[in-house]
Amino acid sequence: MLRETAHQVIRDAIVRGDLAPGSVVRDADLAEELGLSRAPVRDALARLADEGLIETKPQSHTRVTPLLSRDVRDAAAVVRAMHELAARTAVPRLSDADCDAMAAANDRFAAAARAGDVDGALRADDELHDVLVRACGNRAVAATIDRYTPLIRRLERIRFGEGAGHQSVELHERLIEACRARDAATATAVTTEIWRELEDLAD
């Protein structure tokens, strides 16, 4: 659908920083740039406002939300709770192939981090954690993570851009080890450690 396309493209531009925090956005300009009519762009902006990435002041402006520590911290706490639930639920259900997929994703993550490829690192990070999200089988968990992750992704990009990948590789390795042992308690504890880093970074 055109609305979904517009939403995805604009959301990605905000997360990447192509549309910087605080920058004013105009539906007519975005529609022309995307080759779409204004209706799906307006719908996308309304949805992004509901998701906290766009703010609108009537008769004044529509702009990308500033990168506020409170908003990032709140979103990170929700995302952490969902990943903890996914880990607790998924680990007993994992197959050896699932664990191998997590290890392969961490290898890609490490390579991207070494190369300074922020997009590649974030993509591999998502692929690793998505194994647990899919295995837990809870659609509400997946939907909540998808809803709130973009709010923290802008900060994650800064974090990875500053070379924080090495510690994440080690945390991933500990998570994978716990998953291979089907140790849900340890996997959940490591998951907490991984996502609390973002909450701390927001401070």
From TrEMBL:
Keyword set, alphabetical order: DNA-binding, Transcription, Transcription regulation
MF GO annotations: DNA binding; DNA-binding transcription factor activity
Name of one Pfam family that matches: GntR
Residues of the HTH gntR-type domain: 1-67
Domain of life: Bacteria
PROSITE patterns (UniProt xref): HTH_GNTR (PS50949)
Protein name (record): DNA-binding GntR family transcriptional regulator
